[in-house]
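> run fold ABC3 transporter permease C-terminal domain-containing protein
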Amino acid sequence: MRSIIMAELRSAWTAWFAVILAFIATSFAIILPLLAWVGVEDTIATGLVPEMDVPALRFLPIWNLALALLAALNIIGAVTGLVVESRRGALARLALAGATPGQVSRILLAQLAVVAAVGGVIGGVFAIVAVPAAVSMAVGDRGIDESVVVARPDLVMALVGLVGFIVLAMVAGLRQSRVAAAVPAVEALRTIPGASVRRRRIGRWVGAFLLALLIAGIAASTFAMAPQLGVDSADMVLQSSLICLLLTGSFLSVCAPLTIGLLTKAWTALVPSRSGPWVLARASVIAKGERLARTVTPIMFSVGVLFGLGVLLASTSALLRSLGRDGLEQAGMSTLLVFVGLVLLVAIAGGVSVLLMMSRQREAELALAGVVGATTRQQVLMSVLEGLVITGTAMILGLAMTVVGMVVFVIGMGALGLVTPVVVPWHVLAAVLGVCALITVAATTLPVLPSLRRSARTVVAQLAAE
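> ok
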């Protein structure tokens, strides 16, 4: 039995290696705010920071850490679920060889702990290197001379962050390991979902309903409290808008496996092309609803957060100018990075990891397309089109996040008697979509290119063996 367990540990490393980028990015996003918090406190202790800027500087590391923790739970759980799903056959063989559910769960948790430790150490090193630049960016964004910055990396705090990340990864992966261990060996070998999928659907609807209630409650309380607090509540309205925007992303991600296939089918039907690569790419994306949902969600967050915050900042600046005050012209890309840079890094890394993890399935699909007559050029074009379809769906969902955030902002400001002009920075949207499309297309296309030089039979047989 021990030899079987060791063989499973050795054979699983390729699957975990495909998602290690998500672990590195997540650990970086958790450790960096902790180190930045120490740097900010040391900088404030010099007495050279204006008193009015102290609360905002102290708030930034806490804000980024909270966002990173929220994103980490989702991303680590998602990529762990993908690895577990890809190892269903191997886990079934362990069970058939006599492994108990507890042993299977411990094997998965041991693998997760090792990967989290490796990714955490790498991410921690990057965070230590980046902390002076991070503190300087936060200070400079407030218009303060960066020469006052004191940012000596605190190794004890870095170690605390590393341990915290490993614990967080174990918590995020605990449910996945228990679910995988509880699946009977015969059920694990099936390719058709059973009752467990139906139970997950019920849970998703319940979760989506609770998130919708939370969003509505935050919006309603903001609208009710704003008139009582007066103009001083403008900051509260802006913060509530951003929170509702992020929660809308969580709501859409929970609903994604249930609705995203229908959304993609609807908008892609508007494309008049009937070329073979487009038809096959569209059908492949729509048919793999669970894969599409896991891929689209991180890209959706990237589009929604970046573009949504851009619209909020531009509209706030226009509102201030209409009141005869200074706008936010100094708020550029550095402001966006200070507020949401780390959560965007986690989202993009998670998206790339998901795409890389699913590249083996995509290789088999392209091999089957080659069997029915697709040329190498058409196979490559199918991968490119699949990446564009994913980006298009993510754009629609990201715009939905932005709309919810702006509705809360406009109505909240209206409760204060302020008419808010909605300013859409189209250049930000174009830049965000361009970068996301480039990353997604590269992640869907580049990993499968080597498989096009092998025979279709070999590619399909390798996937079946795993």
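Confidence is low (pLDDT under 50) at residues 191-198.
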